[in-house]
């Protein structure tokens, strides 16, 4: 097939372009041509067809004229040229018509992109052209493009893969695959393909840099995306690159502006770019929508509605169904309906706004802003439940991954709706939980962005009834935010901060907040409340009196005054009678006030016995509260439950009737505790009551688990005391002691006699269980501390009881386990115990029957005292015997050590003497060896002449005399070989040390090597199979 580029020319960018004119050879006049100006005077398609047919022009002329018509957007003329070429007998062969079919398919695709009613028919025509040569790679590629255009992505992907198998570097197929992967949100894979296309063909149209920028954009790297589009605009200017850069400018100014001035400047620049785009392409839907959003922000609703309506009218039927263009049109239409809905909402036409929001969601289900707007419209129409359902479905359908700005707004809106439900109904648990979950999720999702102030305030309100610490923390965050923004903190927030600090026990901080609130206050309506809160922190009687002067009916202030008066009048029955009468009068005047009734019940519980009031008065009072005032009053229910439990514990008889009655009271107490928990699921006091009942019925593990959970919520001494009691019952004495000590250290100053007595009991039980005298001694110490703080007879009995236990414990110990001091201390303690028991027996209020106390004292005096005296004598004898044995053992040890030391000294002296002898002998041998070396050197120098050396060199060496073994002297012991070859040590002979001996002397290696020949001439025999090594 002829290369159509042969008739093209290259421009300054080295790109093939059509020439300004085409010269057609005349068939009847060889060498002559007909020149057609295709730039300024291009004839109609029919005239060109007649000319080409008459002159039987080659294929490339038909293609060039078709391209010229396409360049001038004369698609009908181009189609006429191509269809006549296909029908011409000149191109009857399939290969000849191939290029025309491809061109026609491309032309139909090009026309379908413009949209309109005939787009579907054009796509069918393109498909028909491709099917005639479906097996050829070029047609496969073109068919894939058609499928891509009609949004049949799976089939298109398969065809692109077929082309790439045959042509791995086909940039069109690679670009098609990249488009599909980009559509499927596989941005990483699409980016690699676009980059591969850019390497293979940097000048390919459409520019792959646009796709690269889109991939970077969706991957979150907006700066790289902007750089890719800028490069595309520089290399191959296009409206797409320019528009994408404008969108990137808007994104940058909304997300990366560091100041208001920078934002304004950037916004003006971006808006200018949009207007420039509008001037170049007034019908561009994207530009229209951007300008519509701008006008909406300026409050120009009519212009917004006009632009959005123009987009809706333009795109309603522009794209063929099922095509990519239709998907893009839907996206633009969704935004246009969204803007129209916002205009309607601003004009308070909520019904029309809801309709447009629905249309927007129908066109683009992922547009979270439309769902949020729909929820707002539903809420404005009075349908909060529908708004909640809309937001929940929007969150479920949100795209996975990192939180987008729209999703964060959905979370916030849903949290606010749930919070409104929860605050409207204090007993609504589920809305409260959901509101807290969504608002806290919003705070986490906001990240570095500033959190809406209302979120912290709502979270603080939602946590007020359940977690004061969290409520205070969120309110403090709101205060910090206002301080950073240099805004005035409202009086109500300062007051609430003080209330929360008071609830946490931080009274000084609460006082400071209340003082700040009072300084900001300028109205009488809130002055009374602020003064009461301040008085509540300081508990100043004068402040309460001042409040009652200004507002005599302030019941809370009256209650605080009565409470303080009751504390002051403790032990004064006359004052208590007056206070009782005043309280009774207040309750009669305000029978429905649960606060007053609770105060009166507390007074009866603590002072009814001292005032000799009827024992059943307290229970009847609480029963009236539950039956006549409020059946869900938790204080009255708790008091009745505690009362029934106490009655049950006081029944100690084992008779069947009494046991049944006891169990009935236990059941009543359990039922009341359970009712309290139903009313208030976070009531830790009721939970403790149930735990105590479980422990009483031998379910200690379950009760202990409840105590552990309560400990995390309740900052009170009772939980540590109850846990200590439970651990005692479980015989985990170390943990019980730990709980008591934690409670003593955290909630008292170490002077609580009750807790100290509990510690004494725990140490006693631990000592008896572990058979530890030190633990029993600790028990005595704690019992004595408790008695010093409160001289109750029962506490004095505790000391004596433990002292008796110590005496008995020490007597049971063996003489090896105890010491004389232990016995003496036990004897002293026993004397104190005997006196204490006798005194308690004679007292007016003995803790136990006097006879039992006296009997124990007599037993200690008559029996235990004598046993301790005998034990002391026995221990003294044992100690004396042990000391004598120890002294003898020490003396024997010293004698043995002295003997061993003497032997070591003698051995050391012998070794030192032997070493000195060996050193002297070695020095003497070295001196003799030195003399022999000198003598041998002088002998060799005086008896060997030059003539002898010459004769020795001329004649062969002869051995004289028989062989004899060379003898030598060294510093080591001599050895000789036995018959079996083993060497045996032998003593050095004295004759070997004489100067006239015939044995060789020890000389240096150098001397031997230089004088072997002379020695042989003098009659020295060589050693058999010897070498120089034998000399050393």
TrEMBL record:
<feature type="repeat" description="TPR">
    <location>
        <begin position="137"/>
        <end position="170"/>
    </location>
</feature>
<dbReference type="GO" id="GO:0031126">
    <property type="term" value="P:sno(s)RNA 3'-end processing"/>
</dbReference>
<dbReference type="GO" id="GO:0003712">
    <property type="term" value="F:transcription coregulator activity"/>
</dbReference>
<dbReference type="InterPro" id="IPR019734">
    <property type="entry name" value="TPR_rpt"/>
</dbReference>
<dbReference type="GO" id="GO:0006368">
    <property type="term" value="P:transcription elongation by RNA polymerase II"/>
</dbReference>
<feature type="coiled-coil region">
    <location>
        <begin position="813"/>
        <end position="840"/>
    </location>
</feature>
<keyword id="KW-0677">Repeat</keyword>
<feature type="compositionally biased region" description="Basic and acidic residues">
    <location>
        <begin position="896"/>
        <end position="925"/>
    </location>
</feature>
<feature type="compositionally biased region" description="Basic residues">
    <location>
        <begin position="957"/>
        <end position="967"/>
    </location>
</feature>
<dbReference type="GO" id="GO:0000082">
    <property type="term" value="P:G1/S transition of mitotic cell cycle"/>
</dbReference>
<dbReference type="Pfam" id="PF13432">
    <property type="entry name" value="TPR_16"/>
</dbReference>
<dbReference type="GO" id="GO:2001209">
    <property type="term" value="P:positive regulation of transcription elongation by RNA polymerase I"/>
</dbReference>
<dbReference type="GO" id="GO:1901525">
    <property type="term" value="P:negative regulation of mitophagy"/>
</dbReference>
<dbReference type="GO" id="GO:1990269">
    <property type="term" value="F:RNA polymerase II C-terminal domain phosphoserine binding"/>
</dbReference>
<dbReference type="GO" id="GO:0031124">
    <property type="term" value="P:mRNA 3'-end processing"/>
</dbReference>
<dbReference type="InterPro" id="IPR011990">
    <property type="entry name" value="TPR-like_helical_dom_sf"/>
</dbReference>
<keyword id="KW-0175">Coiled coil</keyword>
<dbReference type="GO" id="GO:0045142">
    <property type="term" value="F:triplex DNA binding"/>
</dbReference>
<dbReference type="GO" id="GO:0061629">
    <property type="term" value="F:RNA polymerase II-specific DNA-binding transcription factor binding"/>
</dbReference>
<dbReference type="GO" id="GO:0016593">
    <property type="term" value="C:Cdc73/Paf1 complex"/>
</dbReference>
<dbReference type="GO" id="GO:0001015">
    <property type="term" value="P:snoRNA transcription by RNA polymerase II"/>
</dbReference>
<dbReference type="GO" id="GO:0060260">
    <property type="term" value="P:regulation of transcription initiation by RNA polymerase II"/>
</dbReference>
<dbReference type="GO" id="GO:0000791">
    <property type="term" value="C:euchromatin"/>
</dbReference>
<feature type="compositionally biased region" description="Acidic residues">
    <location>
        <begin position="1007"/>
        <end position="1032"/>
    </location>
</feature>
<dbReference type="InterPro" id="IPR031101">
    <property type="entry name" value="Ctr9"/>
</dbReference>
<feature type="region of interest" description="Disordered">
    <location>
        <begin position="896"/>
        <end position="1032"/>
    </location>
</feature>
<dbReference type="GO" id="GO:0006362">
    <property type="term" value="P:transcription elongation by RNA polymerase I"/>
</dbReference>
<protein>
    <recommendedName>
        <fullName>RNA polymerase-associated protein CTR9</fullName>
    </recommendedName>
</protein>
<dbReference type="GO" id="GO:0006353">
    <property type="term" value="P:DNA-templated transcription termination"/>
</dbReference>
<keyword id="KW-0802">TPR repeat</keyword>
<dbReference type="GO" id="GO:0090262">
    <property type="term" value="P:regulation of transcription-coupled nucleotide-excision repair"/>
</dbReference>
């Amino acid at each position: 097939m002829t290369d159509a580029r042969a008739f093209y020319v290259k421009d300054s960018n080295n790109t093939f372009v059509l020439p300004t004119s085409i010269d057609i050879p005349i068939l009847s006049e060889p060498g002559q041509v007909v020149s057609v100006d295709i730039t300024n005077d291009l004839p109609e398609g029919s005239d060109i067809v007649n000319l080409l047919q008459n002159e039987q022009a080659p294929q490339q002329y038909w293609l060039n004229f078709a391209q010229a018509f396409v360049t001038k957007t004369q698609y009908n003329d181009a189609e006429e040229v191509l269809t006549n070429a296909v029908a011409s007998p000149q191109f009857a062969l399939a290969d000849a018509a191939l290029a025309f079919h491809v061109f026609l398919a491309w032309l139909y695709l090009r026309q379908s992109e413009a949209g309109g009613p005939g787009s579907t028919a054009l796509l069918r025509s393109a498909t028909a052209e491709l099917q005639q040569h479906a097996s050829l790679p070029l047609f496969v590629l073109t068919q894939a493009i058609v499928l891509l255009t009609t949004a049949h992505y799976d089939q298109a992907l398969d065809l692109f893969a077929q082309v790439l198998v045959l042509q791995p570097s086909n940039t069109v197929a690679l670009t098609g695959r990249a488009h599909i992967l980009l559509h499927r949100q596989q941005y990483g894979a699409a980016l690699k393909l676009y980059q591969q296309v850019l390497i293979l063909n940097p000048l390919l149209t459409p520019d792959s840099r646009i796709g690269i920028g889109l991939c970077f954009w969706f991957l979150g790297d907006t700066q790289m995306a902007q750089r890719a589009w800028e490069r595309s605009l520089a290399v191959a200017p296009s409206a797409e690159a320019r528009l994408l850069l404008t969108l990137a400018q808007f994104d940058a100014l909304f997300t990366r502006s560091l100041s208001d001035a920078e934002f304004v400047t950037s916004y003006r620049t971006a808006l200018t770019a949009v207007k420039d785009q509008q001037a170049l392409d007034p019908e561009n839907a994207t530009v229209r929508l951007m300008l519509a959003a701008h006008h909406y922000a300026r409050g120009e609703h009519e212009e917004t509605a006009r632009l959005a309506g123009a987009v809706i009218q333009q795109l309603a039927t522009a794209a063929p169904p099922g095509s990519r263009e239709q998907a893009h049109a839907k996206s633009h239409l969704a935004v246009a309906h969204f803007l129209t809905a916002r205009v309607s909402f601003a004009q308070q036409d909520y019904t029309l706004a809801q309709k447009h929001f629905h249309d927007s969601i129908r066109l683009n289900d992922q547009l979270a802003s439309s769902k949020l707007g729909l929820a707002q419209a539903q809420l404005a129409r009075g349908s909060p439940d529908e708004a909640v359902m809309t937001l929940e479905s929007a969150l479920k359908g949100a795209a996975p991954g990192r939180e987008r700005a729209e999703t964060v707004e959905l979370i916030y809106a849903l949290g606010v709706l749930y919070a409104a439900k929860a605050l409207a109904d204090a007993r609504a648990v589920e809305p409260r939980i959901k509101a807290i979950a969504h608002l806290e999720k919003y705070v986490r999702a906001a990240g570095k962005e500033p959190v809406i102030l209302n979120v912290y305030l709502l979270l603080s309100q939602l946590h007020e009834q359940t977690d004061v610490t969290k409520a205070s923390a969120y309110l403090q965050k709101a205060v910090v935010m206002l301080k950073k923004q240099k805004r005035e903190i409202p009086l109500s927030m300062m007051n609430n901060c003080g209330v929360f600090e008071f609830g946490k026990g931080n009274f000084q901080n609460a006082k400071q907040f209340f003082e700040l609130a009072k300084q900001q206050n300028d109205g009488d309506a809130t002055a009374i409340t602020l003064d009461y809160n301040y008085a509540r922190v300081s508990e100043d009687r004068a402040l309460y009196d001042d409040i009652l002067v200004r507002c005599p009916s302030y019941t809370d202030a009256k209650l605080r005054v009565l409470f303080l008066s009751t504390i002051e009048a403790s032990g004064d029955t006359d004052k208590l009678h007056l206070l009782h009468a005043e309280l009774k009068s207040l309750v009669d005047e305000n029978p429905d006030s649960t606060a007053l009734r609770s105060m009166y019940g507390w007074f009866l519980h603590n002072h009814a016995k001292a005032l000799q009031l009827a024992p059943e008065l307290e229970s009847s009072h609480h029963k009236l509260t539950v039956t006549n005032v409020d059946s869900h009053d938790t204080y009255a229910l708790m008091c009745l439950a505690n009362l029934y439990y106490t009655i049950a514990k006081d029944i100690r008889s084992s008779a069947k009737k009494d046991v049944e009655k006891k169990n009935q009271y236990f059941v009543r107490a359990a039922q009341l505790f359970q009712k309290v928990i139903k009313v208030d699921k976070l009531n830790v006091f009721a939970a403790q009551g149930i735990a105590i009942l479980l422990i009483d019925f031998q379910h200690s593990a379950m009760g202990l688990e409840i105590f552990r959970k309560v400990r995390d919520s309740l900052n009170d001494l009772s939980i540590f005391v109850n846990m200590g009691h439970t651990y005692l019952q479980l015989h985990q004495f170390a943990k019980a002691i730990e709980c008591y000590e934690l409670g003593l250290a955290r909630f008292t100053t170490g002077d609580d006699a009750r807790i100290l007595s509990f510690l004494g009991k725990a140490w006693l039980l631990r000592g008896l269980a572990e058979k530890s005298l030190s633990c029993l001694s600790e028990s005595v110490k704690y019992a004595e501390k408790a008695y010093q703080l409160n001289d109750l007879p029962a506490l004095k009995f505790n000391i004596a009881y433990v002292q008796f236990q110590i005496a008995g414990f020490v007597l049971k110990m063996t003489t090896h386990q105890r010491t004389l001091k232990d016995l003496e201390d036990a004897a002293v303690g026993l004397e104190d115990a005997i006196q204490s028991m006798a005194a308690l027996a004679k007292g007016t209020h003995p803790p136990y029957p006097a006879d039992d106390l006296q009997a124990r004292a007599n037993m200690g005096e008559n029996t235990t005292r004598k046993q301790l005296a005998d034990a002391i004598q026995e221990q003294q004898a044992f100690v004396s015997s042990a000391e004598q044995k120890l002294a003898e053992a020490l003396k024997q040890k010293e004698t043995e050590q002295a003997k061993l030391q003497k032997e070591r000294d003698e051995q050391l002296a012998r070794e030192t003497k032997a070493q000195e002898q060996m050193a002297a002998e070695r020095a003497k041998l070295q001196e003799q060896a030195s003399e022999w070396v000198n003598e041998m050197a002088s002998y060799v120098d005086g008896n060997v002449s030059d003539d002898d050396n010459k004769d020795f060199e001329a004649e062969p060496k002869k051995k004289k005399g028989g062989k004899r073994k060379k003898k030598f002297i060294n510093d080591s012991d001599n050895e000789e070989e036995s018959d079996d070859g083993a060497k045996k040590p032998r003593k050095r002979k004295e004759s070997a040390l004489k100067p006239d001996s015939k044995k060789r002397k020890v000389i240096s290696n150098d001397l031997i090597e230089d004088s072997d020949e002379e020695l042989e001439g003098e009659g020295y025999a060589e050693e058999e199979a010897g070498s120089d090594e034998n000399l050393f």
